[in-house]
Amino acid sequence: MKKVICLIAGVTMGSACAYAGGFVQNSHSATAAGVADAFAATASDASAVIYNPAGIAWLPGISITGGINLFYRDSSVKIPGGIAPNEGSEPTSGHIFATWAPLDSKWGAGFGFAPLYQINNKWGATFGGAADSTELTVDHASFDGVYAISSSLAVAAGLDWYLTRATFAQAANSFNANNFTTIGGHASLMWKPAPAWSLGLTYRSGAKITVSGSVNQKLAIKLPDEVTVAIARDFADVWRFETDVKWTRWSTLKDMNVTGATPQLNPLNLRDTITAMAGLTWTWRPNSQFRFGYAYDQGANKAAGYNPIIADQDGHRVSLGMGGDLADIHMDLAYSYTFYTKKTATGTYAGTYRDRKQAMILSVSKTFD
Questions:
Q1: Residue 369 counted as domain residue
Q2: How many domains does the chain have?
Q3: What are the tens digits of pLDDT across the range 58-71?
């Protein structure tokens, strides 16, 4: 188990990719990915740290979940000269979470680490130096405290620590720098008003990130606020249906300009987005599940003034997953396919953008009483 956790931690630190809905990362565990991330009212493993920390109150003992995400992406744009590919790659990423909820206490705690926001787009062969290369990874460490008000209601609050790596290239100008000190916050609750029902609510505040490089270079961005509302219902003791809705305030991110002696101008025209998720879980035998999910991911980029450094469209994501116990360890595997509707953009980067994405997520979990 120690070797698995070390591998996962190392993979997590080296990840980068891009998604619809601005550049937010999803699928932070195979359990959640199997139901298209409709998980904030369930939060039944240690990935509750990121989906709904209040769920830690129903995870007695010490729980650890870690995993690896494998991605494949096919992104391109149709312009008068033909169809040009996005040459940004999709490397492997990972996640690791741990929770603690003593049986004789109303208090609990959690820690998690995973990429939360990512971009890796390269359009230099299509648009020249104006959109050469954009690589941005915002890793996220979460620290949570949880309090069980009663057997049916728990609340949580915590700190978000963001670790940012940015590499921007635009014509002859380049920017490469890191930031390890940005702090934000979040709060959540989980309420189980009846035996078959569960409700979740989470809020994460946006944080201001400033990355400073050489020759007085600086990149300053504002991460978006997020609110998720979720409800789950159990049927016949073996079926569980959940639906989540997440609102993300991308409109606060006005640009990704690099200022200083070698400036880069990256104006943005983003809208706030809604992500709607629904998932169905079938427990066909104790501790063994099959999962099915669908999500609609609204793209943040508007057609007018579209900027391909983010390059997102509205997406439809379908997912399958399964999980079960193996040698005293619980293992989950999920596959998702995202079809993005074509977007015809106007302005400097006019064209018809197309995108497809596949993901395979593996998680292993262990509980210590």
A1: no
A2: 1
A3: 999 999 999 999 98
